[in-house]
């Protein structure tokens, strides 16, 4: 899967952005160390020379665009999200909303084939084959990254992090997010994103960017809250307010692999001001298409907090081009037990999380808002009756 590069590129930290970029075609021991360092220090990195075939990516993007360009009433036949299926604006079950529409699919083939009947009614088999081809390539990438992470962390069992995702009962998902372009008037955006239920937009969905002062941010945010679907400039016209397309959260699974079509939008909380820049080519130089990788909550739990599940969000589209992101969420089977690996528990780093099943974690996640810290609820020091877990270590 990981392809050798004829002229291995340097592995560079993306300078001021602080997002490490890792060339997977370098020597394995070096890549392993870089992955472990990126996961420990940032929780987020970009990979190049990843080996996912370009045509599989192109087919997946085309399948996403074909679906999202259907009339609203056709798209709605693949919804509402339960949580799988087509969703628009509403994210989850607890009132989170965003400026996007999406398809959330199970990564296993039979489930995806079933949903495909409502997504591509003319040729469901084509849709499920395209998704399957993409998912298998990205699952392989996720597992290789986790195995190298295991090596970089010097785990006794380097397959411990990837095995749950390779399991045939893995509960991994794939999500295609579509952020409509900003040339749409408010009315057009409303029409483009099917509004099945009334949505509320709060100030938490509105953030100030650029160099606005805190007061200007507050004033403009209040204005934006009143006029939630417009770009707001404050009186001095210097402070652009952009809206959040997909609110702040961490991903609950083990690992996420995100690819976007080069339109900006993704932001991570740490380091500050790190926005994904796409892969600008030009000047006759081919730049390998990149994927962004982030540590999920379960990986934080399995490493007893040594790795951090990074908080991120996507801004509403402020480009004239549609933004499409495709995310593979690598997850274990529903009933697998998640617990810090024994070697991650030491005298200096006592057990931080109690064991839990992925099913239990999902249930908790679905009962909370997007931005709530769910893993915190599984900390040992919050569960008096469950702190004595020495026999499970
Ligand atoms: O669409 C994006 O860029 C980010 C979306 C995301 O973080 C998610 O779906 O979990
Ligand atoms: Fe996410």
Automatic annotation (TrEMBL):
Transmembrane segments: none annotated. SUPFAM superfamilies: Clavaminate synthase-like. InterPro entries: DIOX_N, IPNS-like_FE2OG_OXY, IPNS-like_sf, Iron_ascorbate_oxido_reductase, Oxoglu/Fe-dep_dioxygenase_dom. Residues 226-332 form the Fe2OG dioxygenase domain. One of its GO terms (biological process) is gibberellin metabolic process. It holds the Pfam family DIOX_N. One of its GO terms (molecular function) is gibberellin 3-beta-dioxygenase activity. Keywords: Iron, Metal-binding, Oxidoreductase. Its cofactor is L-ascorbate. Coiled coil: none annotated. It comes from the Eukaryota. This is Gibberellin 2-beta-dioxygenase 2-like. It comes from Ananas comosus (Pineapple). The gene is LOC109727893.
